[in-house]
Q: What sequence folds into this?
């Protein structure tokens, strides 16, 4: 019987690649927004493996929806800024330069996922949250911020590197500067409703294996 894996959008590329390379059978991977994925698992999704941001999985574990002892970190994703292809590249090398570039932006895109929450908190920390609020545009669940950048809806987008890698019409400027970094850790766990918990554990082991590092790095993430 095939395993079912649900993943949020950021790690979908590496999870899908590692599902294809697993030699014990078929893994059917479904990628949706992290908020929706967590809600489905909490509602009793009858699958086997969940790959989500660490804090989301920890909350699901505390509620009994995934098996706590199977929770394992697999990758980390840094948040970067991006602009439309052909646009001037903003300076982002210091906190002060980041603030200037944010203030200069007509519209700023951010995500519904963990990097989006962290970005809003960062704006408050930088003292510009209220000032910039009217210019913030949140991507729909499951929609990459890069789509808003590419079509001109926003002229500066902030999202995890893995979400922006390879998107047409988008240029990644850089990670956020020292003192403003945002990094999201992703983890996997066996879903409490799984009918194949042992196979699910082995697949999670595959996601954490030394052989997985190349797929994780190719997707713009770092092995945990």
A:
């Amino acid at each position: 019987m095939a395993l079912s894996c649900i993943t949020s959008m950021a790690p979908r590329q590496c999870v899908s690649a590692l599902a294809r390379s697993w030699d014990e059978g078929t893994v059917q991977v479904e990628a949706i927004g992290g908020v929706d994925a967590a809600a489905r698992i909490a509602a009793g999704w009858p699958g086997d493996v969940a790959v989500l941001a660490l804090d989301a999985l920890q909350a699901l574990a505390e509620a009994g929806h995934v098996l706590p002892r199977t929770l394992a970190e697999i990758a980390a994703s840094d948040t970067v800024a991006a602009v439309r292809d052909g646009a001037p590249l903003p300076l982002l090398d210091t906190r002060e330069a980041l603030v200037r570039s944010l203030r200069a932006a007509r519209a700023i895109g951010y995500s519904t996922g963990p990097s989006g929450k962290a970005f809003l908190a960062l704006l408050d920390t930088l003292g510009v949250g209220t000032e910039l609020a009217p210019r913030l545009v949140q991507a729909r669940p499951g929609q990459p911020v890069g789509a808003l950048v590419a079509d001109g809806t926003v002229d500066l987008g902030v999202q995890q590197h893995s979400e922006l890698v390879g998107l047409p019409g988008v240029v990644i400027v850089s990670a956020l500067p020292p003192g403003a970094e945002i990094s999201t850790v992703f983890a996997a766990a066996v879903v409490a409703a799984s009918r194949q918990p042992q196979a699910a554990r082995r697949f999670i082991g595959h996601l954490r294996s030394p052989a997985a590092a190349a797929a994780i790095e190719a997707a713009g993430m770092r092995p945990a």
